[in-house]
């Protein structure tokens, strides 16, 4: 399977040609019918998809899926929708979710910008997660960073009042950039106080990538902004 996306001049991601394991490939045959969603099916109906009314968590860019799977297992009272463009990570997540019998998780393998525009209902999201996005270090590439004012505004529209936009990064420069973008946005309040980073919430697990960075002395910065009326 290939990721779904619409043509656009600037993307916040590069499709990497990572090789999939046999288990990841087989997962698409076995588990995609249960866990997979298509952006071409139009607006998501959480009640129809999950069979219940529950708080909805949306995560963009879940990588190999470890933390998203952990959260879905740890918070069974919530429903989770993950969005990722890289097939190996999607294959691994749905394979593990299938083995665990997870019911409160669904996945788009698509460009997040398209999914958020066409599929996620306005005011439906209780928590929006953006963890360790590509920082696009070079200044000439900053336009490719997923967190821009327009993206923050789009997330604001998807959140319910009182819902949270939670970001995390291990790049200090990107953390400062995130803080600047979010502090200038209308309709949000910083849950940690003006221009303050948040303590790591208990619900966000440490990934292997994050643990390795911490051993090397790398910092991790969390930002949690709440949607106001």
Automatic annotation (TrEMBL):
Binding site for substrate: 138, 170, 207-210
Keyword GTP-binding: no
Enzyme Commission no: 2.1.1.33
Pathway assigned to this chain's UniProt record: tRNA modification; N(7)-methylguanine-tRNA biosynthesis
Family annotation (Pfam families): Methyltransf_4
EC class of the enzyme, as a word: transferase
A Gene Ontology molecular function term of the record: tRNA (guanine(46)-N7)-methyltransferase activity
GO cellular component, one term: tRNA methyltransferase complex
Catalysed reaction equations from the record: guanosine(46) in tRNA + S-adenosyl-L-methionine = N(7)-methylguanosine(46) in tRNA + S-adenosyl-L-homocysteine
Keywords tagged on the record: Methyltransferase, S-adenosyl-L-methionine, Transferase, tRNA processing
PROSITE patterns recorded: SAM_MT_TRMB
SUPFAM superfamilies: S-adenosyl-L-methionine-dependent methyltransferases
Residues annotated for S-adenosyl-L-methionine binding in this entry: 59, 84, 111, 134
Protein role: Catalyzes the formation of N(7)-methylguanine at position 46 (m7G46) in tRNA.
Family: Belongs to the class I-like SAM-binding methyltransferase superfamily. TrmB family.
Protein name: tRNA (guanine-N(7)-)-methyltransferase
Source species: Teredinibacter turnerae (strain ATCC 39867 / T7901)
